[in-house]
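Researcher: Here's my situation. A collaborator sent me these components and asked whether they could plausibly form a single complex. I don't have experimental data yet, so a predicted model of the whole assembly would be a useful starting point for our discussion.
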Amino acid sequence: MKKKNKKLDILMILTIIAGVLVLGAAGTLIGLEAGRLHTEVETAKAEREAKKNAAESGVAAVTESGLSDSNQTENVDPEAAAIALHATSDVIRGAAVAAIPNVSEYADAVQNGNLVTPIPRNSLENAGTGQNQTEGNGFIVCIDAGHETNQITDLEPNGPGSENMKQGVTSGTQGNWSGVYEYQVNLDVTLKLRDALAARGYTVVLCREINDVTMSNVQRAQIAADANADIFLRIHCNSSDSSSVDGVLCYAPTSSNPYLSEEVIERSQALSRIMRDAQCEETGQTALDNLYQDDMTGINWAEMPVTIVEMGFMSNYDEDMFLTSEDGQDQIVRGLVNGVDEYFSRYGKMEAAE
Ligand SMILES: [Zn+2]
C-alpha cells in the first residue's frame, strides 16, 4: 500500500508539474497573441494617422498647384493622393458653381421672358475668389454653349442699330453617325471647360447650363457683357455636305466690322487663331483657315474679344465619334484651356474704354 501510495504521489506530482507547464505555455501563448493583436491595432492606428496626414498635405499641395503641377504630389501615398484629389475636385466644383449663381438666376429670368434683371457686376467680379480654396486669377471667361433644344424663329437685329434681321437662334446640326445633337455636344464640352478653367483660377460665366432654354444670340452676348467678361467663347460643332471634310476652325469679325472697336476686332482675330491652334495641338485635328465674317449676331453684339470655336465636323465619321466621346471632349477641353492661358499671357486684360 505504502509503496503503491508513493508511486501515486510521484505520479500526482508529475501530473501537477506537467499541468503547470501546460498552463504556463498556454498562458505565454495567450499573452503573445494578445501582444500581437495589440501591436496590430497600434500599427493600424499609426497607419491611419500617417494616411490622414499625407492626405491633408496632399490636399494642400494639389490645391496650391491648382491641379496643374503633379510634381508636388509625387511623394504622397497614392491612396492618400487619390483622396486628396477627390477632395480638391469638390472644392473646384464648388468654386465653379459659386461663380455663376447670378447667371443661373439670369438665365431663369430669360427663360421666363423676364429679361430685366441685369447681373450685378460687383458680385461677378468677386465671384470665385475669397470664399474658397481656388485662388482667382482675375480673368473672367464667358462661355456660350451654342444652340438649344428648340430654335428661336423670332428675328433680332444682326448688330447694334442694324436693320438686317436674323433668326434668334438656329437649331444647329446633328451627328450624321452618332445621332447626337450639336447643342448637347456644345453643352458637354462647355461644362467640362468651365470646371477646367475654374481649376486654373478663372471666373467662369455660362450663358446656359441646360439645353431647354429660350435664349437668343443677342441675349447671350448681353450675358457676356453684363458679366464684364474679358473674353467670350462660343462653342459649336460644324457640318458639311461632304463627309470627308474634317478639322477645326474659328469665326472672327473682319477688320472692317462696323459694330466692334479696332482693339476688339484685332484681339478677336488673335483669340480665334490661338484657340484653333491650341485645340489642334492637343487633339491632332487639322487646323483649317479661320473664317472672317460680319454677319454673326453673337459676335456683332459682343463688347469684348469673341470667337466661335467650331470644334469639328459632325458630318465626318471620325470627328463625329471624337466629338461625342468622353475622351475626345476631354482632349478638346485640355487644348482650349491651354488656348485661354496663352491668350491671357500674351494679351492680358483690355484697357477699359472711356
Ligand atoms: Zn452651331
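Model: Some features of this prediction you could bring to your collaborator: DSSP finds ten helices and eight strands in the chain. The CA atoms of residues 177 and 317 lie 6 Å apart.
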